[in-house]
Amino acid sequence: MSSPADVLDPLIRRAIAAAFGPQFFDEDPVLRPSQFADVQVNAALALSKRVGQPPRQVATQIVEHLDLDAIASQVNVSGPGFINITLRESWIAEQVEAMAGDSRLGVPLQPGQRIPIDYSAPNVAKEMHVGHLRTTVVGDALARTLEFLGHHVIRQNHIGDWGTPFGMLIEYLLRVGENSEQAQLLETDPNAFYQAARAAFEADDDFATQARARVVALQAGDEETLRLWQGLVDRSKQYFNRIYSRLGVTLTDGDLAGESRYNDALPGICQELESAGIATISEGALCVFLDGFTGREGKPVPLIIRKSDGGYGYGTTDLATVKYRVNTLHADRLLYVIGAPQALHLAMVWQTARNAGWLPESIPAIHAQIGNVLGSDRKILRTRSGSPLRLMALLEDAVASARAMIDEARPDLDEATRAQIAPAVGIGAVKYADLSVAHDSEYVFDLGRMLALVGNTGPYLQYAAARVRSIFRSAGLDPDQTVGAVEIGTPTERELALQLLEFGAVVTQVGDLLEPHRLCTYLFSLAQAFSAFYEQCPVLKADPQVRQSRLHLSALTLRVLVTGLDLLGLESPEQM
RNA sequence: GCGCCUGUAGCUUAAUGGAUAGAGCACUUGACUACGGAUCAAGAGGUUGCAGGUUCGAGUCCUGCCAGGCGCGCCA
User: Fold this and answer.
1) Protein residue closest via CA to C1' of B41
2) Rounded distance, CA A132 to CA A380, Å?
3) Which of A112, A161, A164, A537 is at 20 to 30 A from A259, Cα to Cα?
4) How far, in Å, CA of A59 to CA of A66, rounded?
5) Which nucleotide is nearest to A369 (CA to C1')?
6) How far apart are CA A146 and CA A140, in angstroms?
7) How far is the CA of A233 from the C1' of B76 (A)?
8) Comparing C-alpha atoms, which of A150, A169, A147 is closest to residue A160?
């Protein structure tokens, strides 16, 4: 049930050790996929110089010490010294059967770590934009995958619920009335509320003065002010939850850990850093200066932890998250799924935490960088510079175009069924678009790309799964009750089987590298292999033994597709 | 100026230092009396920004250029 490379790896190591000495056992035998065989071993080329023999001769010696009769039908040395291994169909079939008998589909369980994962992090009283969409979708896929691998994932939605804008927002809420239609915008169109507040702030000096006073009252813990603030946050939660629910994201109110949560810890953090000599006053602000962080004209770059007016910035709050996650959540590893431009800031926060002894070297802190989403002008898409793209509207567009597709393709389905499929497919397309490219790459936002339903898209994978289900439905069979031997009779079945066997290795790699796009790439090629199989290998019309084997392959494909899609956060509709 | 990131087919992109750089979209051709055509089979499309270097082997590592982006003290 392991991938062929995982099975071969120790065997190759042993052969190399037998041929050239035990010291080589721990070296990477360099197994790679190959266009000439099923697995290619490249160790001989690297070993050549070390053992003082030409690469082909090294390869030949490795092969001589290798007994793969049960596994491989062909092992030969090729080119400058590649070892090409062709697997036996019987062995592939056995591996597929073993995988089908494994509830984890060949994905090894890892020693469970406690991993707080910081993602999504929208701001109160602001529209979520496509940048938030990306960190939300990628973070959620990582959370699901790490959980499946056996880790204890602790979701941390670090919402922006504190800071100077809240004076303005609270005053504006008072002006329009807490139960007014204007206030209702917080749940439906938060940007409209924010911008109206902003306009009042800029146009009306008295209002601006009141807003500033309100910030002071908020920070002083004034009861009425806190009540109003809570109202803003609660309204925004409604908005976030509508988006999350529409997206099918696993975040709940229980995962909220916004900036305000750390408010009480901030003075202590400053005090501790200052008395430890890590932070010093500079130009009126309390700053941490770190070795190796220099900016303009070689001047050291500060991490400002207390502003000259006595207020705190996000550096201090982020330090508090480190302390909280290490001490209270008992993290083994810290994971931040946030924008790439924050890389320097995060590096400084972590270095400060390490210097202060808050973040031991044994606990890695990892920044899964989310690349900028650009507008058609190749500039970062900013909510304030025009492009008032509303996320909810984008999601509704996606559902609507999926609905149009279904209405055209499946007029035979009843209204309720079509209404159920549309969100799964439309939202799946949007999420897959964000997941299928490397998370740190920038991309130009393209609505058409997000809504696309053909090609390397979520709907293609969902469609493949639906076609498997259709086979079982028309035969009146339950895919979960499929038993019997697997036989590899054609190259198409062989290719499908080999694809299936890679699932465990791919999921493991996604967890190790924190790169969901690798799962997308894998599932797409699996779906392609199944589509070819579907065209070329009739299942239900085949002779009983072949039929059973093909049902088996189909059922396993379905399980892998559904499981893989679920790890990405995509649904798998029964029909579409 | 300093630091970080990016540059792959017309477009969107993949690739643990491994053989002929792999897909999708768009384009061309073919396959529906179908286990479901949101599909499949095939074709065309590349000096991986440029120039050196390291290596048996470089899209990948190093150096220098070119182009673009981001960051570089009190917004978060």
Assistant:
1) A532
2) 13
3) A112
4) 11
5) B5
6) 10
7) 16
8) A169
Q: Which residues contact A148 (CB under 8 A, 6 or more apart)?
A: A107, A507, A567
Q: Determine the distance between A531 (CA) and B44 (C1') in angstroms.
A: 24
Q: Is A367 exposed, middle or buried (0-12, 13-18, 19+ CB in 10 A)?
A: buried
CA of A472: nearest nucleotide by C1' is B35
Find and give the residue nearest to B26, measured CA to C1': A455
- Which residue's C-alpha is at the least distance from the C1' of B68? A378
- Partner residues linked to A289 by β-bridges: A302
Two tokens at A353?
A: 């935490």
Q: Which protein residue's Cα is closest to nucleotide B20 at C1'?
A: A35
Cβ neighbours of residue A66 under 8 Å, at least 6 residues apart? A11, A12, A15, A75
Locate A72 and state its tokens. 């491989």
CA angle A299, A300, A304 (to 5 degrees): 125
- Å separating the CA of residue A321 from the C1' of nucleotide B47: 50
Question: Which nucleotides of chain B are near protein (any atom < 7 Å from a CB)?
Answer: 1-6, 12-16, 18-20, 23-26, 35-41, 56-57, 68-76
Provide the CA A546 to C1' B49 distance, Å, integer: 53
Which nucleotide is at minimal CA–C1' distance from A457? B24
Pair A281, A287: CB distance under 8 Å: yes
Rounded distance in angstroms from the CA atom of residue A421 to the C1' atom of nucleotide B28: 34
Q: Which nucleotide is nearest to A422 (CA to C1')?
A: B38
Residue A531 CA, nucleotide B31 C1', distance (Å): 14
Per-residue confidence in pLDDT tens, chain A, 576 aa: 579 999 999 999 999 999 999 999 998 999 999 989 999 999 999 999 889 899 999 999 999 999 999 999 999 999 899 999 999 999 999 999 999 999 999 999 999 999 999 999 999 999 888 889 999 999 999 999 999 999 999 999 999 999 889 999 999 999 999 999 999 999 999 988 998 999 999 999 999 999 999 998 998 889 999 999 999 999 999 999 999 999 999 999 999 999 999 999 999 999 999 999 999 999 999 999 998 888 877 789 999 999 998 889 899 999 999 999 999 999 999 999 999 999 999 999 999 999 999 999 999 999 999 998 877 666 666 544 344 578 898 999 999 999 999 999 999 999 999 999 999 999 999 999 999 999 998 877 888 888 899 999 999 999 999 999 999 999 999 999 988 899 999 999 999 999 999 999 999 999 999 999 999 999 999 999 999 999 999 999 999 999 999 999 999 999 999 999 999 999 999 999
Interatomic separation, CA of residue A537 and C1' of nucleotide B40, rounded (Å): 12
Q: How far is the CA of A254 from the C1' of B45 (A)?
A: 52
| Global confidence as pTM | 0.96
Give the end-to-end CA distance of chain A in Å, rounded to a whole number: 31
